Amino acid sequence: MSAKGKIKFEEAMQQLEEIVTNLERGDVPLEEALDQFQRGVGLSKICKETLQNAEKTLTKIVEENGEETLFENESDSNE
Q1: Fewer CB within 10 A of the end CB, N or C, for the chain?
Q2: 54 or 42, greater pLDDT
Q3: d(CA 34, CA 17)
Q4: Model confidence over 49-75: pLDDT tens digits?
Q5: How far apart are CA 45 and CA 4, in angstroms?
Q6: Which domains does the chain carry?
Q7: What is the mean pLDDT of residues 11-18?
Q8: Which reactions appear under catalytic activity for this entry (predicted)?
Q9: Entry pTM
Q10: What is the dihedral sign for C-alpha 45, 49, 54, 60?
C-alpha cells in the first residue's frame, strides 16, 4: 500500500465501509473477499493510527509559557 501515508482519514473510512458492505453481501468470490479483507485491515490500521494521533494532540494543553500539560491532569485538578 504505497499511498498509506497519503490517504485521508475520511477516504480510508469510506473505502472501509464499502469493503464491509461488499463482504456482508456474501456474493464476493473467495479470492476477492480475501483481498478486500486484507485491504480493510490495512485501512483499519490507518484509521486507528490517525485517531490515536488526534487523541494525543487533543489531550494536551499548551500553557501560556508554551509548556504542554496533559488535559486530563488539568481537569482533575479543577474538580
Answers
A1: C
A2: 42
A3: 16
A4: 999 998 888 777 666 677 777 766 444
A5: 10
A6: 9-78 (1.10.287)
A7: 97
A8: Exonucleolytic cleavage in either 5'- to 3'- or 3'- to 5'-direction to yield nucleoside 5'-phosphates
A9: 0.68
A10: positive
